């Protein structure tokens, strides 16, 4: 149990620094964009409405983004660049980061222990399991690339198998 608590605390510190840093970089990028040649586009009424919506309703998106793979950085950067107020951002960061840390500390350690035991007790089975996982991952990547290529309108063959 102590190992899970230590791992979760370490992961929590890491996610707070990483996500908070991404928010800060987004805030600085947004400030720079407001002083650049893009300032006219950013000051449009449509952009201002989007910015107000993110400032007001973006906190739940930030919190839930920690439960996804690949959306965390974008959500935190966008929250920063759209100047989400800290009183709204920080609770979302703390809650979402805690959920992320607990999930990875418990499930992540469980998977590592399972794989470690598998390799220690039955090395051939462990290697086979990893090989099957890698083949499945490669199959998913190939399937998605072929599907994206068949749906691309650029070659005139959209939708062909």
Computed over alpha carbons, the radius of gyration is: 21 Å
Largest sheet features:
none
Number of helices: 6
Multimeric state of these chains? Answer: single chain
What is the terminal separation in angstroms? 52 Å
On the 0-100 scale, what is the average pLDDT? 85
The amount of beta strand, in percent, is under 5%
Percentage of residues assigned to helices: over 70%
Count of extended strands:
0
Secondary-structure content class: mainly alpha
Unreliable segments (pLDDT under 50, ≥5 consecutive)?
none
Shape, please?
flat
Q: Strand-and-helix sequence, N→C?
A: HHHHHH
State the gist of this model.
The protein is mostly helical and 161 residues long. The chain is built from 6 helices and no strands.
Notes on the protein architecture:
The protein has 161 residues and is mostly helical. It is 83% helix and 0% strand. The protein has helices at 2-34, 39-42, 45-65, 72-81, 86-121, 123-151. α3 (45-65) packs parallel to α5 (86-121). The longest helix has 36 residues, at 86-121. The model has no long low-confidence stretch (mean pLDDT 85).
Could you name the key traits of this structure?
single chain; about 160 residues; about 85% helix
Topology of this structure?
Blueprint: H1 2-34, H2 39-42, H3 45-65, H4 72-81, H5 86-121, H6 123-151
Helix pairs in contact: 1-4, 1-5, 3-4, 3-5, 5-6
